[in-house]
Amino acid sequence: MRPEEKLIQNHELTRMEYRELFDKVGDKETTERLAEEAVRLRKRYYGTKVYTRGLIEFTNYCKNNCYYCGIRGGNKNAIRYRLTKKEILDCCENGYELGFRTFVLQGGEDPYFTDDRMVEIIQEIKKQYPDCALTLSIGEKSYESYRRYREAGADRYLLRHETASDAHYRMLHPENMSLANRKQCLYDLKSLGYQVGAGFMVGSPGQTNADLAEDMIFLKELEPQMVGIGPFIPHHDTRFASEPAGSVEKTLFLLSVIRILLPKVLLPATTALGTMDPQGREKGLAAGANVVMPNLSPVKNRKQYELYDNKICTGEEAAECRGCLSKRVASVGYQLVNERGDAAEYIRCFRRKPDCQSVPDH
Ligand code: 5AD
Ligand code: FES
Taking the complete model, does pTM exceed 0.90, yes or no? Predict the structure, then answer.
């Protein structure tokens, strides 16, 4: 049987079969078959709803030095910022008014934000917005730290595993980081009752189809509630500056595969995908994605959270992204909804170009 048919039937494959399947990236018939099935499954569980999560990038200080990342600690050229508690709460207020009911606090591994400071921020957000879900995305911490955040009210945690292959992990990270610890963090988070998000970059330097097969096997075992994937995009101040970016086509193929692997998973059409292709996020939805994560960070800091070059949406106010995305999502036949699945009220696009969804220039 063809590997795609076997995946559709069994919702998983062996390492060998995944490799066979990934050798078919670029094959039109296989891609269409996978996308058709992915969309069928997504429709069965989620209809045409697309979930929104408001992303607040609250610090770009980072003690880590992942080789691919523009805000790695070793990058002396990065202009660093951290938001105050008040600024973070202002982002939430703005987001709430725009209809967001999930806030994602994302940042580098910044020692300034001690557990005490994080707990204070988490408690304040949950106090002011008890009807909202709070997601953290602040990297590798101890079980005890994760426990404290959870107790303070954090509901979800995003921590991409980045690659499930040891050898590949070594190519992307310095000696003091390990895949074993990263996986342990994800299992700790699960055992504490967080809804977790894992994920990886597509086409990161050195990534093979065998590595991607490991990613699929790990995801099936972990069973995360969310899987974030996007193309690798080189950043000019990293050792990978002149490496090629990951392909949109392969990312879309993998989105369909992951939807079939974990039918109910939340699957974002990522900013990186939108950066590589002006219609990337719309194409992501058509491949099986069902989440978008507009940026709620203050415009003055947007450009500074530069994980990779040419990141989109860095000049836009939150309302502009919200409006733009709701038009984009509608243009391919879906509706943006808030946390509960209610259609969030339509918010007009504040972009100067009145028909920004038909002028995909950002
Ligand atoms: N290209 C694409 N994605 C990147 N990330 C970090 N650097 C890059 C890059 N150069 C992703 C990582 C990280 C997430 C927040 O952003 O997967 O987990
Ligand atoms: Fe940010 Fe289009 S989604 S401006």
Answer: yes
